[in-house]
Specification:
This protein has six helices and 15 strands. By secondary structure, it is an alpha+beta fold.
Length: about 230
């Protein structure tokens, strides 16, 4: 049975956990990209658990978002979506977590694995006129919809993130209430207990992690013309 909850009545928006029927098409789409062994191994490191798509990390989620595999008018849940979801159904996530973006709190990162990626995103943000601010809003929360992947042999992951021009999906960290955010570049995720960004290893496949998507019931062009 699919876990789902209504986020908004009008226009209708519902959030649900992606089932494992997407696992095969996802893996096929990864193989079609002809990534090298390192990058492909990271992107293929997902699984199905109890009928649900599990273990997706930021690299995999960016690929999924950009792969056209999701149904029409469907996107990965944002941090704000998950806040609303928890307010409507406190037990929805249970013991699971949901990744919803990456945080860039500082360009400096104690984990050298991430230094090339954080520096790259920092430079791209600066070119777009977006700077890491001080105080409460220090740093940026980058939604998966704002990212695309590039294969890069100089990255320890074999992959790097690039901004795709969707600047509306980038916010100050202060836009959400966090329980903890580490320095540098980290995976942002939600559990029933709170909101965190302390996953420094960006390719970590956590078996308890699930993919939550939001489906928007947009009126068709025909319906708009009739009204």
């Amino acid at each position: 049975m699919v876990r789902e909850v209504i986020l908004c009545e009008s226009p209708l928006e519902k959030a649900y956990v992606l089932d494992d029927s997407y696992l095969g098409p996802y893996l096929d789409s990864v193989r079609q990209q002809n990534y090298d062994g390192r990058a492909r191994a990271i992107l293929e490191n997902v699984c199905g658990i109890n009928g649900e798509f599990a273990g997706a990390h930021p690299f995999g989620l960016v690929h999924l978002q950009n792969s056209s595999l999701l149904p029409p008018n469907t996107r990965l849940a944002t941090g704000r979506d998950l806040e609303v979801l928890i307010s409507r159904d406190r037990d929805f996530l249970g013991k699971n977590s949901v990744n919803f973006g990456i945080s860039l709190k500082t360009v400096e990162d104690s984990h050298m694995l991430n230094k090339p990626l954080s520096s790259r995103l920092f430079d791209q943000l600066r070119q777009k006129g977006m700077h890491l601010s001080n105080g409460k809003s220090h740093g940026k929360l980058i939604d998966f919809r704002a990212l695309k992947l590039e294969e890069n042999p100089e990255s320890s992951y074999g992959l790097v993130f690039n901004l795709n021009g969707n600047l509306g999906s980038i916010q100050d960290l202060g836009s959400l209430q966090w329980d903890f955010v580490r320095e540098g570049l980290s995976t942002a995720y939600r559990t029933e207990k709170g909101c965190y960004s302390d996953g420094w290893y960006l390719a970590e496949s956590v078996q308890g992690s699930r993919v939550v998507v939001v489906q928007e019931n947009r009126p068709s062009v025909a319906n708009l013309e009739e009204s």
